[in-house]
Backbone:
């Protein structure tokens, strides 16, 4: 479970709400039962249940199991697509090891708002499921033009373009280092946006094959290929 940190050996921690319910009611935790905690600061810790009540569960933090991992330096700049698809993107990006999720607002975006609390809950649950010791950062949605105007010099922007580009795996291997994937919304980028992205000095257009993939499929496929190429 991800809990507020920093955790330390010997500390006592009281969990409430959903986490207490999960431990006490779903897992039927009893005093002495082992729980693994993460704080997204120091890493992963072994803890034991001291008391499991109706409203809260008291835990005793024992020893550190792993220090917080070094996350592969990949940002995901994914156009904000409709809810079930973006939920999937958040979950799979976390499982694949993405460091940061940047929702992007483009001209053809149907969705224009992200429920931050819900999005963070999906990221946290996915991180717990896949035993990540670091949560992906989630930043506020940004307009495509703003993002391009403030793009960091040292980071390659791989532009997933269904109209063609260099084969993704080869392009990732040829351009190691800090990277980001840019994927469009349900209706794709419009011509003006595509021209602006392609003209950007840090952008490199990639193809994921001759078929037009759903935005969420393209995102997951590109992230998996990048992780495979980076060896992470
Ligand atoms: N209409 C479908 C949907 O509802 O998801 C397809 C949308 S596709 C145009 C969305 C984005 O996925 C594109 O802007 C592009 O970034 C990416 N994409 C889809 N197929 C791709 C491919 N074969 N190669 C590279 N990128 C691709």
Residues:
């Amino acid at each position: 479970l991800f809990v507020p940190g920093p955790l330390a050996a010997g500390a006592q921690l009281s969990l409430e709400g959903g986490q207490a319910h999960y431990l006490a009611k779903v897992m039927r935790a009893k005093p002495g039962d082992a729980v693994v905690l993460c704080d997204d600061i120091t890493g992963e810790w072994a803890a034991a249940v001291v008391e499991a009540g109706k409203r809260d569960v008291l835990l005793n933090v024992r020893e550190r199991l792993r220090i917080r991992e070094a996350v592969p330096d990949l940002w995901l700049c994914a156009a904000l697509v409709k809810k079930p698809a973006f939920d999937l993107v958040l979950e799979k990006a976390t499982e694949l090891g993405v460091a940061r999720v940047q929702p992007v607002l483009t001209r053809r975006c149907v969705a224009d708002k992200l429920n931050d609390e819900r999005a963070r809950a999906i990221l946290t649950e996915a991180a717990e499921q896949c035993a990540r010791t670091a949560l992906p950062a989630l930043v506020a949605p940004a307009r495509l033009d703003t993002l391009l105007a403030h793009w960091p010099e040292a980071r390659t922007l791989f532009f997933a373009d269904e109209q063609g580009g260099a084969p993704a795996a080869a392009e990732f291997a040829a351009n190691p280092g800090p990277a980001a994937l840019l994927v469009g919304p349900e209706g794709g980028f419009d011509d003006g946006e595509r021209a602006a992205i392609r003209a950007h000095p840090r952008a490199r257009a990639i193809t994921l094959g001759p078929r037009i993939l759903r935005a969420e499929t393209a995102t997951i496929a590109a992230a998996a290929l990048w992780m495979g190429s980076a060896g992470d």
Q: What stands out?
A: The pocket of S-adenosylmethionine is lined by residues 160-162, 183-184, 186, 188-189, 207-209, 211-215, 218 (CB under 6 Å). The mean pLDDT is 97. The CA atoms of residues 105 and 175 lie 26 Å apart. The longest strand covers residues 56-67.
